[in-house]
Amino acid sequence: MHEIQLRDAKATLSAVVDHACAGEPAIITQHDKPTAVILSYAEWERLSRVPSFGRLLMSAPLDEADLPERVESGLREVEF
């Protein structure tokens, strides 16, 4: 992945997009700070389908017996 300044990306946007479609994403910088990434639509689709950890947990087939017992004080006892 290469870095390109925003003003250069504007001037060569077509080439930046062509490179991204060929599998070479670009980091767009503004005032020497990374601000955006140009990548192909196929790569964006692949990355957007990766589930979050929370969604994975919520989709796990759990039974009530799999969960720890709730202690009335709100704190669980921990064994050492």
From TrEMBL:
This is Antitoxin. Gene3D superfamilies: YefM-like domain (3.40.1620.10). Antitoxin component of a type II toxin-antitoxin (TA) system. It comes from the Bacteria. Belongs to the phD/YefM antitoxin family. SUPFAM superfamilies: YefM-like. It comes from Acetobacter senegalensis. Pfam families: PhdYeFM_antitox.
